[in-house]
Write a structure and sequence with these properties.
alpha/beta, globular, 5 helices, Rossmann fold
Length: 194
Amino acid sequence: MILYMLDNAKRALRQRMLQERAALSNLERERISEGIYRNLLSDKGLANSKVIFLYCSTKDEIDTDKIAEYCLLSGKTVCVPRCIGHGVMSAHEIKSLSGLVPGKYGIREPKPDSRVVSPDQIDLVLAPCLCADRRGYRLGYGGGYYDRFLEKTSATIVALCASSRLMPLIPAEGHDCRCHKIVTDTEVVVTYEK
C-alpha cells in the first residue's frame, strides 16, 4: 500500500513538473541552463574529473551541449547514454556532438559502434531530473534507466536542476539513488560527501 501511494505521489509530481517545465519560455530556459553551466564550472568536482558521463539534452531539459563541448575541449573523456534494452543503458565515448544520432524516444545518442565505457571508469555523472530535493534525491522520467546505471558506478553523481524545482522533500523509494550534489542556476548543493 505504501509503495502504491509513493508511486502515485511520484506520478503526480512528475506530471506537475513536466507541465511547469513546458511552460518556460526559451529565454528562461536558456537563463537557467547558463546559470547551471557557470555553477558547474565553478565547482571543483568537474575540474577534478577525467571521465564524465552526461545526458544528451532535449529541447526542454537543462542544456548539456555546452558542458560536453567544454569537457571535450578540456581533454576529458566524455561519454553519453545509449539505450540497449528496456530500462537499461550503457555509456559510450563521444569525440564530438556531431556524431550523435536519434535514438530511443528521439533522444540523441552515440552510434552502436562507439566505444563502451565501463561504469567503474567514470568519475562524474551529470544526471537529468524533473526536480530534486536537498537530500539528494532526483525525480526522473520513471523508466529507471539512471537508477539501474548508477548502481554500477562509484562516480560522483550530480543532478542538474532548475532552482525553482529544487524542493525540500520529494517522494523516494529504497531503489532510488541519491546524488552527491545538486547544481542549480543559483547554487551548488552538497547533499552528502562520498
